[in-house]
Amino acid sequence: MASEAAIAGQREPTDKEIRLVIGASSAGTIFEWYDFFIYGTLFYIIGPTFFPSGNETLEILMVWATFAIGFGFRPVGAILFGFLGDKLGRKYTFLVTVTLMGIATAGVGLIPSAETIGLAAPLIVIFLRILQGLALGGEYGGAAIYVAEHAPTEKRGYYTSYIQASVAGGFVLSIGVVLACRFLIPEQEFNDWGWRVPFLLSIILLGISLWMRLKLNESPVFQAMKAAGETAKNPFTESFTYPGNKKRIFVALFGITGILTTIWYTAFFSGMSLLRGPMNVDNLTVDLILFFSGLIAMSFYLIVGKWSDKVGRKKPIIVGALLALLLLFPSFWGLGQLANPGLSTAAEATPVRVEGQACSTDPFAELFSREQSDCGKVLETLIAAGVAYELSQGDTLKLTAGGEEIVINQQWLTDGKARSNGIRDGLSQYGFDFNKQELGVASILGIVAILLVLGVLSALTYGSVAALLAEMFPPKIRYSSMSIPYHIGAGYLGGFLPLIAGYIVARSGDIYAGLWYTWVVVAFGVIIAWWGIPSDPEAALDEDR
């Protein structure tokens, strides 16, 4: 069999070649994740534009549902493009993925609103999200493997960490572009049509990415395998029949990807959703906070990658996961206290209780034409306002704050706007603050610090992963074997996180309850990681693990 070590040893890549490999791979990955994340970044506009219902909670859940659909198709893309990457080569496969992503993203910016074309609008959105998911399923594995197969062994963790930092880079770029558009376009016009500009910009980013990646040569490892006739006949099948590979895939899915993806999406998207939604912080402030905290956090991915070249890939992941279990709930509680102290303090001092018969809320009632109970309507309004509540059984519907009744007007039960205004007005008398929050410098710095802590936890569990996964799998099925567990984990465990967490919040009435999903996935993942991740600092890419 052609030895990768021998191939790499023929000639050490020059600094210029390494910079081109890392730069082109990372830039393309940044652009591709930008394309994917811009949808989530603008969720507060996407909802009423394509999924208008008059129900804020349902609109947000529908946005996260279509966000999850894209993630749901990532494993399919991983299988398809993993097959092509192991058969045809790394370079041309990720040229196809970045092209598909760019076209699909620009398409979202061209879709008329649901008010204009009705049901066709959300259906087109779903179709384009599927294309994005397919493209993303092939991108990460290609870029990570391409860099890993060019990198010298002693620097593999550091060089591949640029790919990990590129994921955060795509998120930061999406925030930065939105900020620039908000600065250049008046607010009303941005909400009407200006939000489409970040989507259409992906065409320019696609051109830049293709220009850079076309300069690259095929991976020397793949070239040698192809010349020796050692490429896999069926990479997908062999991923599950190759000796020991089932265990590697299991560990990669639950002990690596499950941890990193839930921490990442909790840090960035759950934080964003909490600040924009229940805490009612104005959008510009949230964008600025996320931009600077994400920008600073990117550097920690590189630090962790370099650290892993010395201590191994396992230690950073275990440390980051254990710290996440300890700091997850305190961090988000701190975000709430800093972002909207009036709401947080009132919720603790004045408990809200809802009493009624078989009282529960159905977040998807309107979507499936189910009748929402009167009690469910009240709960739904409290959830949208970010107010935690307790439930008790009773013969009649009753809402109390601190033991004092807030009389429910019958009009509230038929008019959602009147219900929202009435309940908010009633609770405002007890110190609940539903106004847009204008944060002081100290609060902003505190929130940035907390998000930075969460970003560091993400870097610890993510920074060394590209090198680790490349080292875990044999070269002839590496693209497929690495992509399948990564995108199943990221697609389902992580991609469905905003939807699942939002649903848990909607059913429980506790704005922090959705964090339990992350906590459980990470806790299970730590056990698998401790058992299954190799402890040695590094491994030659030609070794069969």
What is this entry, summarized?
It holds the Pfam family Sugar_tr. By secondary structure, this protein is mainly α.
What does this structure look like?
This protein has helices at 4-10, 15-41, 43-50, 56-72, 74-87, 90-108, 114-117, 120-148, 156-184, 187-194, 196-200, 202-213, 220-227, 235-241, 245-276, 283-311, 314-339, 341-349, 374-384, 416-428, 441-462, 465-472, 478-494, 497-508, 515-532, and strands at residues 352-356, 390-393, 398-401, 404-406. It is mainly alpha-helical and 545 residues long. It folds into 2 domains: 4-340 and 439-532, MFS general substrate transporter like domains (Growth Hormone, Chain: A), CATH 1.20.1250; 344-428, Glutaredoxin. A 4-stranded mixed sheet has the order 2-1-3-4, covered by helices on one side. Helix 4 crosses helix 8 (120-148), helix 5 runs antiparallel to helix 23 and helix 15 (245-276) runs antiparallel to helix 16 (283-311).
Strand and helix map with partners:
Elements: H1 4-10, H2 15-41, H3 43-50, H4 56-72, H5 74-87, H6 90-108, H7 114-117, H8 120-148, H9 156-184, H10 187-194, H11 196-200, H12 202-213, H13 220-227, H14 235-241, H15 245-276, H16 283-311, H17 314-339, H18 341-349, E1 352-356, H19 374-384, E2 390-393, E3 398-401, E4 404-406, H20 416-428, H21 441-462, H22 465-472, H23 478-494, H24 497-508, H25 515-532
Parallel strand pairs: 1-2
Antiparallel strand pairs: 1-3, 3-4
